[in-house]
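Support reply, case 0932

Customer input (verbatim):
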Amino acid sequence: MAGTAVGISGLWYDRSRPAVLGATLTLPVDQAYYLLTSLTLLITIAGASFWNLTALLLHRLLAANQNADVLDLEHRVAVLNLGTSAKVFLSAIKLYHAWLRKGVRNLEARTLLVLVPAGLVWSTFVIASILASRVAITDSNGDVISPIRPHRCGFFSFDVPENETDPFGMMRKIPNDTIQARNYASSFYNRASTSRPTLSRFKSITLSMDIDTAAQCPFRNPDRCRLGPNGAMAMRTGLLNSHEAFGINSHLADQVAFQYEATCSPVQPLDGEVRRHVRPGLAGDINRNVTRAYFGPYGDEDFTYEFYDETINTQAGYIVESYYARTNDWNPPTWVPIPDFNRTDADVTMFFLSQNKIGYIEPTFDPWFWANGSDWRKINSLNLTLANRFFSTMACTEQFRLCNPAKETPDACLPWTGLVPLQSALVENDPVTGGLFNVPQMLIAQRILTHMTRSTLHYSVVTLRGAALWANDLVYGNLSPGLPDNQWQMEALGWFQTSLAKLQSYIVQFAANSDDLGPYGRVRTPLDMLGTNSNGEHDEASNAVYHMMQDQCSNQLVRPTGEMQNFSFLGVMVIVLFSCTVIVLDLAGGVILEWLRRLLRRPSALAAARQADNIFHLVRLALRAHLPHGERWVLGQWEVPVWDGDLSIPRPYIEENGGLALYPDPSRVENHVPKGHWRVGEAMRVEEAEVDSLEMQDTTEIVA
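Our regenerated output:
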């Protein structure tokens, strides 16, 4: 149902939540993948930048120790140069094991001083990267909700001229809507635990309900219920919130709660209420035997229902007829129930079931499908049980009410009643003088009640007749297996669920009407609903109502047909702003520190330690012996030391005794280098005084 519902992408607001939390970004799935990947990458970069800032503070703490030893220096170098918290975490473990048996003081505490901050930063941003996907949000069923794309928004209606038919409009739409609703109820309500073949388009896949199979008889005379005063079945929805249940996106103060109850029971006729008659033929036709039910006049007739005897001899299967009486209806009623079934606070529907030539393989003792075996026929080797009556009767009452969910008071609801009295009570509500509902709530309530008019049990049956029965799914030709004793309850529940599914569909259709309504059908848009003054102009109040209704057109929430993904806009912005802030601070950190150093114009031991422990300055210090006096080193951008001359550096070698890598010492003349190592070239620049001193030494080998 509502298969044409197309969700829109972009930024929208879930009005049931605070504004800052309700901002939602909806994107197609392919774009959603890019966003999630970008957020994860941004968090990773922010994690590295956050560690760089943490490393500056941690190095400052380590460098404050005036009695530093080699382990302190190695910790400082690791913290300042390894670049990531993960590498520092692992290097702290390596340094601990390397110095474990060297008698270093407070080894554990000093290791933890580096290990804990690195581990915390590492784990925090790893978790943040994993949880970045949590900004993608779904509803309680794990599905995406977004506003529908408005199309021909408004109520559909038909204006068929007298003596005309409309086969392409109302006569096609209403049955099709009922068939789709029944199929939806079959998939998502009646058999939801075993089959969900299609994707629902409604915000709430199913509407909550309670079922009582031992309810009180709903009629004035409780003896009318075949199963006794407590043998009826009551079906009642929960308080259906207009936002949560129907997807009408609105603020809490503008939401409405709707509740619907139906109570059904097979009916016990009294003497004289079912009679046999002979209907005279017209214009030479033969007379016809009929059986009539007298539960109140229908139209111009003094009876309610009439069954033609010859129907039972045809191949007709199940037939169900429906008669509907709305209490206090302002239109001339078509059926006027007798006092036992008349309710002033509920609508009443009576259903007549004729089973005709349906033959049951086993007897059926359901009170509505009564076929106990006393009437049977034999086909081939099968003894088939036939119905005991020409027709059976079941009646249901329907009640409705509206509540204001923003109020938690006993008077927050209008009383249970029929549709027409409830609509009248809503019209009489005056929001200006402190009525129960404000104007936006009244508009939402009217929208629900208008759609409910075509979603009652009567409309769930009248257009489908025999196809409105689950029992019909079991029929092969005119053969049926025996039915369970509660088949009537399953049928009534199916109608109730069909009514709910139909109501859900009509709520969505209000925002996006896509059906062909034929030549006499039209959609009454919000503009068409406005009244005008004597000059044909809309007054200020009418304009306000128009904008409220138009707002509902663009704020109907559905499950979109395309692959979409929702994101918490707040979550996305928190990640982006925090990450960018950390990255910018990291990039500017060195510049800020250098600016402060120059501003203060005084040497700092901590600044000197930070420079000396920097990996590029360690290179500078390691190569001091290769440079004449070191006067040509200068401080470049980002505190990087640079040499502005031309200098060739020999490759390092491994010392034979200690296994340590060394650069060749230019203060010595090379006569021998172990196999596999590089010699110092003759072009190595050495101070002339140092060469003279080397000539006076006996040792000419480079220490390997």
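We compared this against your earlier run and they match. Two observations from our side: DSSP finds 15 helices and 26 strands in the chain. The first strand starts at residue 10 and ends at 13. Please reopen the case if you see a mismatch on your end.
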